[in-house]
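Lab manual, section 2.4: Encoding a predicted structure.

Procedure: take the sequence of the chain (269 residues), apply the prediction step described in section 2.3, and record the output as structure tokens. A sample record is shown.
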Amino acid sequence: MSRLVRIFDPDKHSEPMRLACFISGSGTNVVKIIENERAERDGSYHVVLIFTDNEDQSRCNAQKIAESHKIAVAMHDMDKFYANHGQISKRDLLLRRKYDTEVAELISPYDVDVIALGGYMSILTKPMLDRYLGRIVNVHPGDLSVRVEGRRRFVGLHAVRDAIMAGEREIFSTTHVVREEVDNGEVLMRSQPVRVALPRGLTPKELGKTENRTILDNLVAEHQERLKAHGDWVIFPKTLQLIGEGLFALDGEGNSYLDEVIQPNGVRL
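Recorded output:
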């Protein structure tokens, strides 16, 4: 077996894991993470910073959450950054590397151990991924253990829609380590299932028809909300708690371990 490296090793630290939460919008996942921290008796992690790439307080709750929970907040607006460099589109990931370099420097004084992406909509690039190698965690609204021809099937922004259209009877959330390829890091934990409930008389194939587009959109939104409540809000804080306790480790070969036991598809709730 390859040498295991804990995502966070409490034996090497005199205080709980210092966590930064990155958000772009409502921050509901972050609120649950903070609530879990406050409820923990032993306190395996401590949220020391909320960072956002969106300074617009009408669209992002970073400032409100930070103030209400007395947590430091840092901001570096992505739109303004690109505009200042003469670009409207944010697709230039080479320029994103400069942005991420600045973000890494901005959060450096907070001595962050682990980063949790709680609805952070920007793709991270090497300056952040290398600085916090294997220590950035995300929650995804899909079962990342499902593969087709060796590739993960339910990845990207439309994972819930894709699962419904594929005829899946249940959907799941998974937590995973963030790597350069989106949604392809080590799986840490999978939630309990949320049952897919289709409108009476409609199959996935029929939902894909143009005249049923609104029905499908509403169906996806409803399932995403249910999955967030019964999936994300449960497994994300739990994953971070176990990381803070030093129980999650990686072997550098794409596998995760809980208390030194390999978890090929993540811990199953």
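Check your result against the sample. The two ends are 25 Å apart (CA to CA).
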